[in-house]
Amino acid sequence: MKKILNYIGGELLEPVSGAYLDNYEPATGNVYAQIPNSDSGDIALAVERAEKVQLDWANTPRQKRSDILLKIAQLIDENHEQLAEAESRDNGKPIKLAIRVDIPRASANFRFFATAILHESSDLHESDQEAINLTLRTPIGIVGCISPWNLPLYLFTWKIVPALAAGNCVIAKPSEMTPMTAFLLSKLCIEAGLPAGVLNIVHGTGAKAGHAIVERPEIGAISFTGGTETGKKIIKLAGPMFKKLSLELGGKNPNIIFDDCDFEQALNTSIHSSFANQGQICLCGSRIFVQKGIYDRFKAAFVEKTKSLSVGPPHLPETKVGALVSKPHMEKVLGYIDLAKEEGGQLLAGGKQVVPDAPYDKGYYVAPTIFEGLTPDCRTNQEEIFGPVVTLTPFETEEEVLNMANGTDYGLSATVWTTNLDRATRVSKSLNSGIVWVNTWLFRDLRTAFGGVKQSGLGREGGWHALDFFTEKKNVCIKL
Ligand code: NDP
User: Fold this and answer.
1) Are residues 123 and 148 in contact, defined by beta-carbon separation less than 8 angstroms?
2) CA-CA-CA-CA torsion sign (208, 210, 213, 214)
3) Looking at the structure, do residues 76 and 198 belong to the same domain, yes or no?
4) At what angle do helices 103-116 and 62-78 cross, to 10 degrees?
């Protein structure tokens, strides 16, 4: 049985309480590792270790900080295969996806922010020749980073690296369901010579370890990615302490397909935007709106392609849809499939659990599922399912589809398929979301602002936005 350890003060440590949790392998439903059930005692230790080195790290020349972070990127690349296998086993995602997307993106996150800090500049404002105003940026001190299970190392590094690059010490908690690659990363950080105490990775549940990070007064900022309900709890706890907050929350994203789209591109990309990572990406387009002129043709082709996706054990190269992350999550997704039927939805594909041959027959597999005939305001079309379930809805006019697309509490991302540039611009401006993709999906330039509106979040990550978040601006006014 593998044993995961906390990474605190540069050492791999048992949890203070000595208590462990089971870590399940989604492909088989078996327990395959033990994870520290950390609590406020472990967070207190991490804070104590971070406090000791915080000023040293903040004053470390940026070239040196950059070099260490680049060394970690290199080690991630050198251990690419092992990390991809660990990610696929821990999360249930197809190994191909972990190899192609998750692990390369983790090292890209390190490279991006490690080099960004070498090109930073400060603002200077001349005030009518009487004074100059110089804007200094200083690290916050100790910050907390809490990440979810769907893109484990990818999102974990997206948070911790800008925080470290900006000169902060970090106390980070990966999801209790997918701790393995963060644990492997802690070993790479030791190998790369990251000074002890600068990054502390504490494993355990949100209720204990996550809560303890948010409530510690020494931790000045919280960067969180996860569900909207957890985001609300964090605001309640951290708000009165005036902590800086960056919250990347849930989505219920529209995928809008106009008659004049490039049909094949819209079709093929919609398969990915619906079912990639088993539909467990906050940016998946789970509400598909298709204009009436191509609705029947699109529906027939989309259903056929969906039915041909191979569902099964994540380590097989032919697998397109792997296992969902946990049994409770699979049961939640199957519950939404029942709800969609109760709400009058017609099932076009999937709609059931898939049971592969032993030893994978206890794994958490759900067939990619399509419903049509549901109203825009029903629960299936309003609540985040976070699984391989999408709805198809026809529309006639731009106004009609914009009303439906904007008609949820969420506003993370949207996708628009059209070859009419005027329409693309007009519709993009009217969509109430933080991110709009036109004729593509999940195309990411790490310099751009990333985040949602309404209940999809608060603040923006990416590029300078992330480095701004992890620093405080101080204006120094000098009379001439
Ligand atoms: P959760 O909100 O359940 O958990 C996210 C993280 O927060 C986990 O590490 C969790 O710990 C921890 N946590 C839970 N409760 C607390 C608490 N009270 N205080 C502090 N930390 C806590 O989300 P999921 O892990 O289920 O992830 C799925 C969600 O993430 C979806 O809603 C998805 O849309 C969203 N997401 C958003 C993205 C974005 O960029 N906007 C990107 C990816 C996902 P534990 O280990 O116990 O779960």
Assistant:
1) no
2) negative
3) yes
4) 170
Determine how β-strand 6-8 pairs with β-strand 11-13. antiparallel
* CATH number for the domain that contains residue 470: 3.40.605.10
Token pair for 16: 């203070």
User: Does the residue 451 lie in any domain?
Assistant: no
DSSP 208: I
Q: Name the pTM for this structure.
A: 0.97
Q: How much is the average pLDDT of 66-73?
A: 98
CATH number at residue 296: 3.40.309.10
Q: Give per-residue pLDDT as tens, 323-382.
A: 999 999 999 999 999 999 999 999 999 999 999 999 999 999 999 999 999 999 999 999
Residues carrying an active site annotation: 248, 282
Residue of 23, 225, 286 best suited for mutating to test ligand 1, as the one with most atoms within 8 Å of CB: 225
**Which class for 410: exposed (0-12), middle (13-18), buried (19 or more C-beta within 10 A)?**
buried
Whole-number percent of the chain with pLDDT over 70: 100
Gap from CA of 150 to ligand 1 centroid (Å): 9
pLDDT digits (tens, 9 = 90+) for 237-273: 999 999 999 999 999 999 999 999 999 999 999 999 9
Total number of domains in the chain = 2
Which structural domain range is residue 335 located in?
Answer: 254-445
Burial zone of 308 (CB within 10 Å; 0-12 exposed, 13-18 middle, 19+ buried) = exposed
How far apart (Å, rounded) are the C-alpha atoms in residues 204 and 16?
Answer: 12
H-state helical runs in 217-291: 228-238, 263-275
Q: Do strands 365-366 and 353-354 pair parallel, antiparallel, or not at all (unpaired)?
A: antiparallel
| Spacing, Cα 231 to ligand 1 middle (Å) | 8
Which residue spans within 263-387 are E strands per DSSP? 287-291, 346-349, 353-354, 365-366, 369-372
Across the chain, mean pLDDT equals 98
Residue closest via CA to ligand 1's atom 8 equals 175
Ligand 1 pocket residue status of 249, Cβ below 6 Å: yes
DSSP letters for 185-205? HHHHHHHHTPPTTSEEE--S-
